[in-house]
Amino acid sequence: MSKLAGMFEACRAERRAALIGYLPAGYPTVPGSKELLGAMVASGCDLVEVGVPFSDPVMDGPTIQAAAEEALRAGFRLSELFGVVDSIASAGGRAVVMTYWNPVHRYGVDAFARDLASAGGLGVITPDLVPDEAEQWLEASERHGLDRIFLVAPSSTEERIASTAKASSGFLYATSVMGVTGARDVVSNAAPELVRRVREHTDLPVGVGLGVRSGAQAAELAGFADGVIVGSAFVTRAAEGGERAVRELTEELAEGVRNPVATIG
Amino acid sequence: MVGSEGGSAGLLPTSHDPDAKGHFGPWGGRFMPEALIAALDELSAAYEKARVDPEFLNEFDRLLRDYAGRPSLLTEAPRFAKHAGGARILLKREDLNHTGSHKINNVLGQALLTKRMGKRRVIAETGAGQHGVATATACALMGLDCVVYMGEVDTERQALNVARMKLLGAEVVPVKTGSRTLKDAINEALRDWVANVDDTHYLLGTAAGAHPFPMLVRDFHRVIGIEARRQVLELIGRLPDVVAACVGGGSNAIGIFHGFIDDPEVRLVGLEPGGDGVSTGRHGATLTAGSPGMLHGAYSYLLQDDDGQIAEAHSISAGLDYPGVGPEHSWLKDTGRAEYRPITDAEAMEAFSLLSRTEGIIPAIESAHALAGAIKLGKELGEEAVILVNLSGRGDKDVDTAAKYFNLAPQE
Fold first, then answer.
1. Where are the domains of chain A?
2. Between residues B1 and A38, the one the model is more confident about
3. Banded model confidence at residue A179, pLDDT cuts 50, 70, 90
4. Rounded Cα distance, B188 and B193, in Å
5. For chain A, which end, N or C, has fewer CB atoms within 10 Å of the first or last residue's CB respectively?
6. Is A20 at the interface with chain B, CB within 8 A?
7. CA gyration radius for chain B?
8. pLDDT above 50: residue A265
9. ipTM over 0.90
10. Which fold has domain A5-257?
């Protein structure tokens, strides 16, 4: 049973989308990331994605690349991830981890799942692991009660959307544009079409990410998605103005997801 | 030279092909973002059609013959051989191909596939610049737009090749992230690909990455081994005892190895960049000192720390400066069909100098690793042995590096 299902149900009951915020663990430091993620939860994120800094983040644009490099330069170790997750869970927040697969493979897939579950983490988002290669993770996530959040993209075929949805739990992550992470001025018009296609194959909630940075964009996405995912914009605000700036952005986005713009879907 | 005699014979399916999902034993596969899976599927489908289409095979043969200059020569190196225990040393002269290395084989094949897929833009990564130059060349020939990503460190040590690519009409983008070498150039090319996949083909230069690249690149290079086997038999009436090739990503090695893979009496030896020495930690000897993991889409041996962060490779050779390796090499290592040894920068440069002075052939520093391996193997096996060395590229691009290394440059 997915621990995230309840969250999405509650948001649906309030006729709003969930706000999902991303920040890398260890950015700018390990204690610093705990404070920032704590502030995101306290000021309106329904769920946070705790990123794992990686040396070769091929799906990320310059903002998150720079944050990952800074975290690694500051000495971030993978074992510290679980403390960051625990700090969120202990404070009553919900956390999933977003990670490239090699660090998990190196740590040991089952050991990673075990340690994440015991820290109170709810699942893992896997940007470079597709269900076709995920046999070990399917088993480990079942064993330790974690949600598996796979990605779908505008280029995904119907068959792949169906098989990816079948392998997923918690929610499905729809990348709204073809491209790397990074804030954009305009929300892609591919997003509503992708969400429409996904809904033909699954009842799972759909979170939409890549490019969101304002309350107005969040409101637009909330019109057709179950979750609005914001990453690079949080990293930028954290770099510019620390905890206060992160709170301000959270509040603006939280307002946005509560005022969905009706779209023809 | 059509069919079994031409280069296109390398495209025929064999028992050494990976499974449907691209696995060589446990290695390979697709550890890639979902956004790129459709493009990989499209490429797989296009290749499966092309490899049995006479029109494609004829066109590939024609380009290899009339444009690249194949078949490349087999040259015996008797004066060099005196320094290799007296063993017979035969050089497969990929340095004589158009653009100066084996890279042209794969590039012509993939550029043809690009046109068949109706794409008009090509992106590529390059380390030493050999693959970048070859790609820019094929794009000029076929009227395709070309963007080459190259680590900033490499644009400095291979400035001549940067100019070559620009002369050929390509855009060269210096990559300033990470270690600013080959692995980071691949990262940046992948970021471009995911944003432009509709009209863009990623022309990967080595037999690594996500399926179908390891098979595709291998097959376009199998011509090296097919020719070499025939040429060695013609010259000496028997097979060589050893086939030696340098291994960075592993494309020239996998191409020549496959000519002999079903001849169990022929030893296949890959020579990896040992940099300052494997014990110093400053090297690129992935198969010698690496551990299993996922990089750039494939499960293979790689250089990484305890947290799975990818390590920086170190080599005097920009073309071998890569912390990963093609997945089929991991499989050949595990099955024992091939063996892999490190060669230090110093050993490679000694062989570089030796071949230049004894045979009048300046090799690429990459290929000098294979030559250094041949010296060692020759000394081990003695004068009865025959060693086939893949001379994968010429050393013109390395003259600046060598001049500095041997203190030949005029003092400023």
1. 5-257
2. A38
3. confident
4. 9
5. N
6. no
7. 19
8. no
9. yes
10. TIM Barrel (3.20.20)
